[in-house]
Amino acid sequence: MTLVSLVDLIAGARAGLLVSFPTDTVPALAALPEQAPLIFEAKQRSQDKPLILMGGSAEDLWPYVQGSENELQIWQEVAHRHWPGALTLVLPASYKVPKQMNPNNPSTIGIRVPQSAIAQTILAQTGPLATTSANFSGQQPLQSLAKISQQFPEVLTLEPTEFNGEISGIGVPSTVSKWTGTNWEILRQGTVRLIF
Asked: What does each C-alpha distance from 137 to 20, 38, 87, 173 come to in angstroms?
């Protein structure tokens, strides 16, 4: 088991290691975007399942997407209503997104700001991270940090004393909504209901 302090977790993530920490939905498995292959390997995840880019604030994420001025305004309005929160927006990716984030369709990227103080603290210091739920692909998301550190002994998992036992979220993955060029398509319904 590799339970670490907040300082060590942030340093590890910046150094390109795999980390795990609580969010507002399910605990995350995370790495720098260019280290995304580590996540696919650890989870035994199929390359056709893209990762989500999680940021500490919306401002940290906008450079990773590209659209017209009008589109950006629409996306920012939706983000303003639902972020921080359990909504992932799938948008056209900018040149800044490493292809490894979404190997089969590098033209899009899912972005999200979690409603979790501890996750925001980490992301503010690491910059946006490639994330997904902490579990083997196809299995239920793991809900406890002890289980995560057992299943992924090589992952730096945040020590529970570091976040005052803040509940690790609602246990339901985020709503995923994709921009089609004219409107939103719900790819996965979570607790957030998108108002068009």
From this structure: 16, 13, 21, 14
Residue pLDDT, tens place only, 94-131: 999 999 999 998 999 999 999 999 999 999 999 999 99
Task: Quote the domain boundaries for residue 163.
Answer: 3-188
Give dist(CA 57, CA 55) in Å, integer. 5
> pTM of the full predicted structure?
0.94
Residue type, 103: P
Is 193 inside any structural domain?
no
Evaluate whether residue 196 is within a structural domain. no
Nearest Cα neighbor of 22 from 127, 159, 136 is 159
Pairing of strands 184-188, 108-112: unpaired
Low-confidence ranges of the chain (pLDDT < 50): none
Amino acid 77 reads E
Q: Name the domain count of the chain.
A: 1
Cβ atoms of 65 and 111 within 8 Å: the answer is yes
